[in-house]
Each structure stands twice: as structure tokens, then as C-alpha cells.
Amino acid sequence: MIGGDLSKVRITKDSRSAHLESEIEKLKCYLGEKELAEEALIIMVGHFKGLENLILKMKYIEGKSLKEIADELGYSYQHIVNKHASIINTIKLIESIK
Predict the structure, then answer these.
(1) Of the CATH numbers 3.20.20, 1.20.1270, 1.10.10, 1.10.1140, which one belongs to the domain with range 16-97?
(2) Could you tell me which InterPro entries the record lists for this protein (predicted)?
């Protein structure tokens, strides 16, 4: 006789438990894609130097707002906003050429 907390649990072909392996594989693929995207982001940020590098790193890797970046680096908020917009335009231009 089976006893314990799970003794009354039955796995059927339609139960969530029956699909766990498939869900786990999907999540592994998703995680792999996210890890590749993160690596690509780090490489892309590394191509920028100086203030541009700092802005990208702080915003997209550390998750800081442009206001936080401006305060931390001692620049005006508007300067950081303009610089960030310029960086994004540069990235878009590079992507359009590829």
C-alpha cells in the first residue's frame, strides 16, 4: 500500500505534472536565449568607450534609470538623456547597415 502525502495524487495524461518535462525543456530554451542575449549585450556595450560605455552599462546591465545615472556620474539629466538618445541612434544605424 502506498502511503504519505502524495498517496492520493494521480498523474493523468492531461495533468500539469504530465507536461512538466516539456515545460522544463521550453524554459531551458528560453533561458538559453536570454543568456545569449545578455552576452551579446555585454559585447555590444564593450564596443562603446567612456561615458557612452558607462551609460549603457548602468542602464542595461545594472538596470538604473537615466536620472540615477546622471546623479551618480555628476552630469545633468538632460545631458544623459541626449547622450543616451545619440547612443541608441548609433546602434539603430549600425543595425540597419547589417
Answers:
(1) 1.10.10
(2) RNA_pol_sigma_r3/r4-like
